[in-house]
Amino acid sequence: MVSIRDVAAHAGVSDKTVSRVANGEPNVSPATKVRVEESIAALGYVPNMGARLVRTNRSGVIGLMTDVVSTTPNSVEIIRGVQDSVSTARQSLLIANTSGAPEIEQRVWRTFREHRIDGVLYATMYHRRIRFAARPDIPTVLVNCSTAEEPDLPSVIPDDYEGGQIAANRALDRGHRKIGFVTLNPQIIAAQLRGKAFVDTMTRRRCQIRSDWIRPGYAGEVGEEILCAFDVARDMLQPTDRPTVLLTGNDEIAMQCLFAAQSLNLRVPDDVEVIGFDDFHMISAQVIPPLTTVALPYYQIGMRAADRLLSILAGDISDMSVERLPCPLVERASG
């Protein structure tokens, strides 16, 4: 087995210098760092993590606990953002999926403690408020969620209210005044925030709000929903007095609205426009016409949350707030 002394001899430096490079510590010149890294690669040296743990009480591992994020295609960008941040900091990432089961979550917390995980990123598939059975005793940053019970627990979430304003203003700026809205499940906080933004924007710009043109695209309880957006959109678009644009809760709903318009021989965007939310590329960039949509910044959320956790681990606890990231408009052909 290659030892730290072997690397030091190969690179012509001290054991301590090799240790500094391996642990990502400062006070090593760029040229020396490159030489040591080349020796590590050439010899296949693997640092002794057990020794590091004894010496520093730090494992060099970040835990990512998810409900179903790690198995959900539209949220994989969260993990990519986390991974890019953690890798830059020369940390490793351990991902645990709980499937939303409290007993599995408690087991994961215990495993993280046993393995001396340095810090935890707690991520959810959709923006929601969570409740812990007990406050985490490991430095933790919430990802795509927040908690009212622990106001000093930092979190990074999308600015759903601003995103809702952007979608409504897009429709109004394009001259629409007959605006329909096929929403997410009303029980979801994102639906509530975007719905409030829609009403506030329409009111501020003195545009009539038709309550019969605001309908959910899902039926049922959260987690057990049935997609009904096709029937809802078709029902809205059939009458002569119909919306000229449909805002939607996500790109899945928007796709169903496109299908509904097509079934009625309505052309998008000529006869009716459709604006999505998410920018889930498997839908938004592939449907015809491609969707104009408001993007959820999943990658940026993951990266920013990991950056904040790494700052906390470095001793910076000056900012423990909820951080909202902007949701940009992605212009394509549907509206």
In short:
With 335 residues, this protein is an alpha/beta fold.
Characterization of the model:
With 335 residues, the chain is α/β, with parallel strands linked by helices. It folds into three domains: 4-47, lambda repressor-like DNA-binding domains (434 Repressor (Amino-terminal Domain)); 61-158 and 299-326, 3-Layer(aba) Sandwich (Rossmann fold), CATH 3.40.50; 160-295, Response regulator (Rossmann fold). The chain is built from twelve helices and 14 strands. The protein has helices spanning 4-11, 15-22, 30-43, 49-56, 76-88, 102-114, 160-173, 189-204, 229-237, 251-263, 281-284, 298-313; strands spanning 61-66, 92-97, 119-129, 140-146, 155-158, 179-183, 214-216, 218-219, 226-227, 245-248, 273-278, 292-295, 322-325, 329-330. A six-stranded parallel beta sheet has the order 2-1-3-4-5-13, with helices on both faces. Strands 7-6-10-11-12-14 form a six-stranded mixed beta sheet, with helices on both faces. A hairpin with a 6-residue loop joins strand 8 (218-219) and strand 9. It is elongated, with a radius of gyration of 25 Å. The mean pLDDT is 90.
